[in-house]
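Operator note (shift B, R.M.): manual run for Amino-acid racemase requested after the automated queue skipped it. Running by hand, logging everything below so the morning shift can see what happened. Input copied straight from the record, untouched. If output looks odd, do not overwrite the archive copy; leave it for review.
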Amino acid sequence: MAYVKLYRSELRHNYEFLDGLFKQHGVKWGITTKLLCGNRAFLNEVIELGIGEVHDSRISNLRTIKEIDPDTLTIYIKPPPKDAVPDVVRYADISLNTELSTLHELSDEAVKQERVHKVIIMIEMGDLREGVMREDLIQFYEKVFRLPGIEVVGLGTNLNCLHGVMPDGDKLIQLALYKQIIELRFKKKIPLVSGGTTVTIPLLLRNQLPTGVNHFRVGEALFFGKNLFTDGVIEGMSDQVMELYSQIIEISEKPMVPTGDLGVNPQGKTTQIAEDDYGKTSYRAIIDIGVLDIQPDYLIPVDENIKIQDASSDMLILDVGTNENDYKVGDMIRFKLKYMGALGLMSSDYIEKRIEE
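Run finished. Output pasted below as returned.
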C-alpha cells in the first residue's frame, strides 16, 4: 500500500527556521494546516511544535485542532459559508471576512453563543480572489464596527493564490497604509496587518517587507521549504518534510513505443511518439498509485534516474532505463511532493499516513 510519510525532524527544522526568521523581524505568524486534511496525527505534530496559532479552511479540521488543544488559536481562512456560521463561531477564534451579510450572521451567532468573534477583513489587492474593493473599505469598516459580538482585529490580503499576482513593496505598503487610515478615521486599534503567506517570505529574507505588515499565514514553506519567486527551495530549509512511498507491482523490459492504432485514452490524451524511440526498449515499472491519488506532474522521484511516463486511474508507469538499481517487485519508490499533489494524497482514504519516529 502506498503511504505518505511525515519526517518529524525535517518538520521541526523548517519550523525553527521560520520561527527564528519571523521573531527576528517582529512578525507574528501561524501555520496553515489545510494541507493535512484534518489528519489527527499530523495535526498533533504541528501543535507539538509550540506554534500556538493554526489556520485552516475546513471547520471539521478546526474542530479537531480544538479537540487536541483547546488553547490553540484557530483562524478560519476563507469567507465563511452562511450555513457554517454557528460552527465558525464555535471553533474559530478568528475568521477572514469580505461580506457584510455574513458578518451580520456571525454577529448574531456570537451574541447567541455569548462569545466575541474576532475578524480580519480581507482587501482586494489585485489577485482577484477574495477581498473587499479598496474604494469600499471605509464604508465597509464603518458598518462592521457597529456589529455586536464582533471584534475587528486586522486587515489582510491574499496574493498569488489565483492569478499568480506576486507581492511587492508597493502593494504591501498600501495595505499597511489602509490600517493607519482606518485607525485614524474610526479611532480604533487594529493589531494585525495579515499580508504575508509563503509567497511573501522572500521579501522578508531580502529585508524588503514594508514596516507595518506584521502577520503571516504559512503552510507551503513549512512543509516544502518553497520559494515561490524562484520555484526552488529557500536556502536553509528542507523540501523533504513529506514524501510519498509507493510499491512496484510490475517491472519488465518493454518497447518504448506502443503498437497498434492510437486513439484517445480515458484522460482525453493522445500519445505522442518520439521518432528516436522506435526499436528501443527500457525497463518499465508500474507502481500502485494513479491519477485517482495524484497527478503525475506533482511527483518528483528521489532517484533522478527515474522518469515518470504517465498514469492511468490507479497505476503509474515509470521508466527506470536499464534498471541499474536492480528494482524488483515489492520495492518502494520514493517521491518528493509538490503542494497540490500532497493535498490530494492527504485527502485520499486510499493512502496511508505515517510519521517517521
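Quick read of the result: The first helix runs from residue 8 to 24. The two ends are 19 Å apart (CA to CA).
Leaving this for review. - R.M.
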